[in-house]
Amino acid sequence: MNSVHRKILGFATVFATAATMMATATPANAAIYTCRMSDANIPCTTVTGIDPGSWLQVRTAPSYSAGPIDQAYSRLYNGNQVGITCWTTGEGAADNPNYRYWMHIEVGNSRSGYVNDWYLDTGGPATWKQQIRQCP
Description:
By secondary structure, the chain is α+β, with helices and mostly antiparallel strands. It has helices at residues 3-24, 125-128; strands at residues 33-37, 40-46, 56-57, 75-76, 81-89, 101-108, 111-116. It has a five-stranded antiparallel sheet with strand order 1-2-5-6-7, with no helix packed on it. A two-stranded antiparallel sheet has the order 3-4. Mean pLDDT is 81; it is low at 3-29.
């Protein structure tokens, strides 16, 4: 095989590999995935954007003035997995006052509460509104 054929074959291999990777790449909404919480399969995601040494408080309502849920389950850290049951609106995020979306989440052992979606890896409203129902 001469060098021209090797170059063409090499280019074709790279192109085919790239095309395969693009076809199997995770979609933009891949931040939401199915997991098992409290004996049910539900949409899940992870906590993100929390400053080192701090935590995300799980609250009893979509408001920063609402109290925390049970203390043993009320603090979330970057990388913690949470189940998402529905979304609603409430107060703006501490880091973005105009972002008013809150998720009703499940944190395990049938404990649930609210956190602002700003701190979850959901991909944003354009993504999760197609997958997560609005809270009643």
